[in-house]
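Supplementary notes for students who missed Thursday's class. We covered one full example, reproduced here. Read the sequence, then the structure, then the short commentary at the end.
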Amino acid sequence: MLQLFLTKLSIDTFANTFYNHLYQFQETGYQKMIKKLVLSLLLAGTLVGCSSGDANVVGNSTTSDALTTLRLGCGNFSDSLDPSASPNSAWGTARYGIAEGLFTFDDSMNATPTLCDTYTVDETHTVWEFHIRDGVSFSNGKPLTASAVVDSFEYLYHQEATGAGTNAPSQFLTYDSISANDDTNVVTMVTSKPYADLTKVLSHVNYIIVDVE
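Structure (token representation):
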């Protein structure tokens, strides 16, 4: 659960803001009740993790753990973090910052490199080479290599082909081959047809990279 450490002032400010935007009508007994409910819920949130007799304990974590670990409870439309399981799984995993793709969209909807730092494309727009960013690791500590990226793509498409997952990456991207050179940390993809800008396709959450070993 996300622990809310709010001062009384910030609670009042938030509650008033919420209340003022709830309705634009005159205050009623019902609205007063809503305001009190919001205050109560927020105040209860500040007490979560603070009721232990040990002053160094926050929730279920020691103070040192709390400085390095964020525990966040949130809703999700899927019970899986596997992006191949369903579109909602891919969206949830990317939305909450659990996984990333080779590219992502910025606030202006431009494709920007993420796990890939540079790329090249030939004149036919079918041979794409992506240099995988150095010094990146999965959350389990395994290094992100070109082979790991290829394995993630192959797993994603295998899940679709066998019906094990409901995500459909081939709806937006089909390729004839994909290979890795771990010496140069480059992934080479030969697409089935020309793509004017494959980086925008790869910015879609369908193509986030996960460790599949």
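Commentary. The helical segments are 8-22, 29-47, 63-66, 87-95, 146-162, 198-201. The longest strand covers residues 175-181. If anything here is unclear, bring it to office hours.
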